[in-house]
Amino acid sequence: MTIGIVGGGQLGRMMALAGYPLGLDFLFLDRSTDTPAAQVAPTLVGEFTDRKLLRELARRSEVITFDWENVSIESLRALGRSASIAPPLAALAMSQDRVAEKKLFGKLDIPTTHYAAVDSQASLVRALRDIGLPGVLKTRRLGYDGKGQAVVRSIEDAWLAFERLRGSPLIYEEFVPFDYEVSIIGARNRHGEIVVYPLNRNLHRDGILRLTRAPWGAPTLQRRAATHLRRILEHFRYEGVLNIEFFVRGGRLLANETAPRVHNSGHWTIEGAATSQFENHLRAILGLPLGATTARGHAAMINLIGRMPSRNAFIGDDELHWHDYGKTEREGRKLGHITLLERTASRRDARANRLLRRIDSASAR
Ligand code: AMP
């Protein structure tokens, strides 16, 4: 049985690696074979909007899924009933537009940041008046890893950011002086079964996820985040894995964004949970029973960004799991990650800090 995946990045690659033990095969669609996924599975090469290739992918696959959210909905929709696609395209459409996402949070009673859509000078003036400073001006679509956004501290900043980002529909949000950021990942299958992972605490650097620690936080925070997640999963009669990122301020959760796919903050589940997010995504889109999400200990995941440190200096450590995505080095690029597991949260935190320092000095050389 073959799973078709649009996008051959590291997320697709990790899905394939999780699916082989289940007896699944994989076929990717990407713009080239110079991708992390092409090293582990065959790839159809062409544009993501290429109808002929998408039809071929559909013909050869049991179900089509995607490993990033900026795939063309129109092209997938054009496949009609000939293809089974999961997660649902309505959830994908919502996550592609920050305004639609915020509206859904509002509808489902999930607290989020104050915001206003900005598509003209007049609407920027109104947004600044209604929401005030500081704020963040972002593109509504195609933003990732902090790209396509600017923090706005003054009226001048706002106009400079507007000039830089104009041409795309924008959103202006209040700046949230958060205490920290968390995310929650869960899966639903077509039978309505839902599983939720322990909460992740996330640290970003230059807009890119640097460190995730899980499980994190008090049971009340976990329960509230899980309730919000369930509402979204049920709203879409969702099939697959979904992630929500939140700001935490004074113990309150404010939803920032969703991703209708496996997520970087869930990489620790490969070694750190009873069933990984990648396996649960596959189970969910195939309508199989979902696996337990229990943590096996206290995990920290560190992204390896821009430069790959030398593997041999690290892999001798106990319960240190090395992941190299097989990419060429480039500044700001996610090249791999490390997951470590400890018996207690304090040992995990101390070890993660030491490792971060070691990686920084190894990458600086
Ligand atoms: P995003 O692309 O929305 O996930 O933004 C990337 C990162 O920028 C977030 O993880 C936050 O660290 C920061 N950020 C985004 N929006 C805001 C905001 N409204 N207030 C404060 N920080 C933000």
Describe the structure.
The chain has 365 residues and is of the alpha+beta class. It folds into 3 domains: 84 residues, 3-Layer(aba) Sandwich (Rossmann fold); 61 residues, ATP-grasp fold, A domain (Dna Ligase, domain 1, 2-Layer Sandwich); 180 residues, 2-Layer Sandwich (D-amino Acid Aminotransferase, Chain A, domain 1), CATH 3.30.470.20. 31% of the residues lie in helices and 28% in strands. Strands 9, 10, 11, 12, 13, 14, 15, 16 and 17 form a 9-stranded antiparallel beta sheet that branches. Strands 3-2-1-4 form a 4-stranded parallel beta sheet, sandwiched between helices. 42% of the residues are buried. The structure holds adenosine monophosphate. The site of adenosine monophosphate has 13 residues, from strand 14.
Task: Give the count of structural domains.
Answer: 3
Can you write the helix and strand succession as a string? EHEEHEHHHEHEEHEEEEEHEEHHEEEH
Bound molecules: adenosine monophosphate
- Low-pLDDT residue intervals, each spanning 5 or more residues: none
Strand residue content: 25-35%
User: Helical stretch count?
Assistant: 11
The H-level CATH homologous superfamily of the largest domain, spelled out, is ATP-grasp fold, B domain
What is the 3D form?
globular
How far apart are the first and last residues' alpha carbons, in Å? Answer: 46 Å
Can you give the helix content as a percent range? 25-40%
Helix/strand-derived category reads: alpha+beta
Radius of gyration: 20 Å
Classify the fold: give the CATH topology of the largest domain.
D-amino Acid Aminotransferase, Chain A, domain 1
